[in-house]
Write a structure and sequence with these properties.
Length: 204
Amino acid sequence: MRFSLGLFLGILLGAGGTFAWLERPWEVEEAAVESDAGPETAEAAQPDKKRKRRGRRGRRGAGAQAPQDQNPAEADQAIPTLTAADRALRWQGDSVALPPRSLDMADGDEARALSNGEIDRVIGGQSQPVIACIVEARGNAELEARIQVEMLVSGQGRVQRMRVRAPAYLFDNGFYPCARRAVMALRFPSTGAPTVVNAPYDLR
């Protein structure tokens, strides 16, 4: 299973509220689970063949049914058939936006948004718990999607609010509470000003 990660930095520029979006992509290999799935889209339903796979126990989607003549051990490793509803992307979580900010010339340059390098180091070094949540919720399902994690980071470096966009199948299998715990535990450098960070995870 391969996760391609990119992150975008939202910086509030002056009183006008203009945003600059800067991309810093990289890849993280997850060797614990392997997938030989062909190309699929996150929002379109495509029939999945049921095959045995080594790895985690698969959870079934809304349209998945195990053959009646299949023994329990085989059923646990069967690849579930996902419906269009299972693959549909949706947001779940808090409303994420930068709070109103007035310019105070007395503050000088002390308060600032997080830099790209600071975000790179945090997301690159602390993303494993988020990836583990994706792996656990996906199970044996053959599913490709771009999962977006959006968060508001305070000037003290703590995540104050977060939301995530992912396939319904992941949410139905416990992804949101797991991802929320992982994201809220992220710690960024203290810069004195809030920053909106959007970190996409490409599940392939």
